[in-house]
Amino acid sequence: MTTDVTGTLDEAYQRLHATGPEFDGWLSNHGPMAAEAMVRRGHAGSVHRWLDGYMRRLEEFPRGTAAIGENWQEALGDPHRVADWTAFFRQELTRQPWRRVLGTWWPRLLPGVAAAATHGVIRVGHAVRALLADGDDAVHVAELAHGLAYWAARWQPVPGAATGLDSPAAGGAPVPSAADTLAAVPRIAYQSGGVRERLGQLAGLPGWPAALAGPVVPASAAAIRSWLADLADAATIRYLSYGHGNGIMLVHAATAPGAVLRTLPALDTELWAPSLAASWAAAAALTAVYAPAVPAARTELPGAPAGPHAADDTFARAVDHGDEHVIKFADTAADAYARTGNADALAAAVRAADLIAR
């Protein structure tokens, strides 16, 4: 990444760090994530113009109340402490390399992967991708502090989930595919209300414990990474047929595991299996509480751009659309298409643009 483009992302981060991580109640600030995706996909020239419009909706960064100390567990999941968490992580990241801080706090935060409808882990994933691509830039490190702080302040477990799955497959036993495992997830009876109300129904959902335990952890780190990629790909492609259940929320069934996948290279491999488990819990939960039981008719679905630049064209359409969810999902869909060659991944991004209002 060139210095000019990295500078554009730094400028965007600096503008956004004066704003809070939420607005209008508890809607997540997607600015840092969308800006990083646009820079990464060759649209740095559009970032500031997009921010000029988006930032009109945002609120000032909140004031802190008290320092986070040795009893940090008491502040987990307390959204009123987000400024305190931000100050804490900024300090930690001045004392230690960012990879060490991430390695310490990732397993602490991972059980709360549902934080802010998975926006905590997604923001961290975008921050880590920027750091891995651009180097240890100080403003990039500050964005990691903001992402970790938001995750900590909104920390929320998926009901019934743990950080482990069944033991690694042995003796060459086949591992169920991510697509098949995701297709088997049951649905809650009453798909209404906000995400917290919907997640609250999971504890009493018949078949939910079995669904959570569905995946089997592959035996090797490479296979874990492959299965996690397959999960992000399957959730992306399923959006094409099931996204009408909730155009915005079902985006995150793909972008959350995609964010974890992007973070794996910065983590010790011993953290990869619990990362897969948390990704699965998040994707399964969002599927259970938002995905409809019946897919849309194929005749109702859009096609994907064709040609050698299909992924670039799809992302450009998302930037033109302007919605932050459409932009982030097109970024994930481009990754899925690069891995699979399945045009339905790009068609899913087009579908998101159709379902989500400008």
Strand segment tally: 2
Largest sheet: 2 strands, antiparallel
Q: What ranges have pLDDT less than 50 throughout 5 or more consecutive residues?
A: none
Structural class: mainly alpha
Mean pLDDT: 95
First-to-last CA distance: 30 Å
Helix content: 55-70%
Number of helices: 16
**Strand content range:** under 5%
Report the principal-axis shape: globular
SSE pattern, N- to C-terminal:
HEEHHHHHHHHHHHHHHH
Give Rg in angstroms. Answer: 19 Å
Strands ordered across the widest β-sheet: 1-2
How would you describe this structure in keywords?
56% helix; single chain; 358 residues; globular; two-stranded antiparallel ribbon; 16 helices; mainly alpha
Task: Give a verbal description of the structure.
- With 358 residues, this protein is mainly alpha-helical.
- It has 16 helices and 2 strands.
- The protein has helices spanning 3-16, 31-40, 47-54, 82-95, 98-109, 119-134, 138-153, 178-183, 195-200, 208-212, 221-242, 252-263, 272-290, 310-321, 324-340, 343-355, and strands at residues 22-23, 27-28.
- Strands 1-2 form a two-stranded antiparallel ribbon.
- β1 and β2 form a beta hairpin.
- α11 (221-242) runs antiparallel to α12 and α11 (221-242) packs parallel to α13 (272-290).
- The two termini are 30 Å apart.
- The model has no long low-confidence stretch (mean pLDDT 95).
